[in-house]
Specification:
Radius of gyration: 34 Å
Strand content: under 5%
Shape: elongated
CATH topology of the largest domain: Rna Polymerase Sigma Factor, Chain: A
């Protein structure tokens, strides 16, 4: 009995390590067969390892005990043909109406989704919180806080009211403390 026959016999008898040895030895042949048949469209959805695993699963579940493989070349030919058929079968499946790869669209080709605004309830809660926050402020302080809310810098607000930047910063810190935010 030669090395190839001993390896197959070990797999049939479920010897530890025999499956790994067989896969390690013949996986390059299976992957090569898959890669020869894998179209660019299928490559975008599948990796050659996906098909190789499928081939080995089928081989070990169904074929190994039923098929007489007299030579190493016969095994390579059988595994290669099985790989080609699995790729072809998936290719046919991917062209069915439901899973048609031709319907795939690149994300780069899609328009940007519309911006999501706040929900009406979130806006109402924010408006109530704003009113509570500015209720005890003077008219001038309320205007300064509105400018900060609208994105103006501390410097711009200070210039508008003839104050120092430090005064505006102290106001912002005081309000953060009232709102429970980070100071």
């Amino acid at each position: 009995m030669n090395e190839f026959e001993r390896l197959l016999d070990g797999c049939r008898r479920r010897e530890p390590g025999a499956f790994n040895n067989l896969v390690t030895r013949y996986l390059p042949h299976v992957r090569a067969a898959v890669r020869r048949r894998l179209s660019p469209r299928l490559r975008s959805r599948f990796d050659s390892h996906d098909f190789a695993q499928n081939v080995w699963a089928s081989f070990f579940q169904v074929t190994i005990d039923r098929l007489d493989l007299p030579t190493e070349d016969a095994l390579v030919a059988y595994l290669s043909r099985m790989a080609e058929l699995k790729v072809a079968e998936e290719g046919r499946h991917q062209h069915t109406r439901k899973a048609d790869v031709r319907r795939d669209v690149s994300l780069a080709d899609l328009p940007d989704p519309p911006a999501r605004g706040a929900t009406p309830s979130a806006e109402a809660i924010a408006a109530d919180g704003w009113e509570v926050l500015i209720a005890n402020l003077s008219q001038q302080e309320q205007e300064m806080v509105r400018m900060l809310r609208d994105g103006h810098t501390h410097q711009a607000v200070a210039d508008q009211f003839g104050l120092t930047t430090k005064t505006i910063q102290r106001l912002a810190v005081r309000l953060r403390g009232q709102a429970g935010g980070p100071s």
